[in-house]
Amino acid sequence: MRSRFSSLTFAMRLALLCLALACLTMPGTTPAAAFPVRPMRIIVPYAPGGGNDTLARVLGRKLEEIWGKPVVVENKAGANTIIATEYVSRLEPDGYNILMVTTVFAVNPALASKLPYDTFADFIPVVLAGTAPNVLVTRPALPVNSVGGLIDYGRANPGKLTYGSPEIGTAPFLGAELLKIEGGFDAVNVSYRGTRQQMFALLSGEIDYAFDIVTSLEYVKTGKLKALAVASSKRLDAFPEIPTMIEAGLPGYEVATWYGFVVRNGTPPDLVSNINQAFNTAIDDTTVKSAMDGLGIRLLGGTPDGFDRHIRAEADRWGAVLRKAGIKREAGR
Questions:
Q1: pLDDT tens digits, residue range 254-272?
Q2: 175-191 pLDDT, tens per residue?
Q3: Which of 191, 213, 230 is the last residue of a domain?
Q4: Most buried among 3, 78, 150, 326, by the most CB within 10 A?
């Protein structure tokens, strides 16, 4: 009897050991200390070449050094970022697929009548990587030289002004809609496939004005564009002569394009913490900061909870603006 009992106990222990080892190899159960054990992916919901794509690739290269594993940047553009966001929402919550998000991520719930995912239930915020203040620029021939002048012109010529935006729901679009509401005038939105196309349209005189990140100020230096104001709380160090929108008479007017990263809800907390720490390390790197300075992106970093609060605050703020402007998509795509 004693021999049989001992044999059975050993067999049970062996089975339990095998079960434990099997669990360690199951998706989503990799211990944080061993994470990652295979290549990582960053999914960017925009086409290659833009500021968001560049930020993801620069951070991706630094993350490869930190993790010692390849970090593949995959572009899935389309449908106002919904295609990429839905795609990630259906993946295994194992931490290996990281979605880059921008202002549109917080705006889409108010903009779309129905989304194929739940912005707040299907994702865990990881880190707010950075922000880029928007600048109000016009074509040189437009007969205005200040924000007040643009508002007066718009009021005197209802519906004649045109402004560009990369897509509905982006920070440049939201900034222009907020200006229309605050200024009490009307203007026509012309939507493009990206900020680069928007800038080409403005430089060619196809549109009258636009909000863009500070890299557009290179064209201001050469006289190809006029800068009316920067949509931040303080003036830019590199362009101290350009007033803020607040100084131009619009209290509290701030608009910034922001960039962050999220993972699927259900990702183990220790893996979320691992990813957050790796991103913060990459964000603090001097070579990464130097590369982003050239794009006008101010790197931030921080905690998942801090980023969660930021997303919810942006959703509330811009949702109110969209409702006031009466803007709504018919469907989620």
A1: 999 999 999 999 999 999 9
A2: 999 999 999 999 999 98
A3: 230
A4: 150
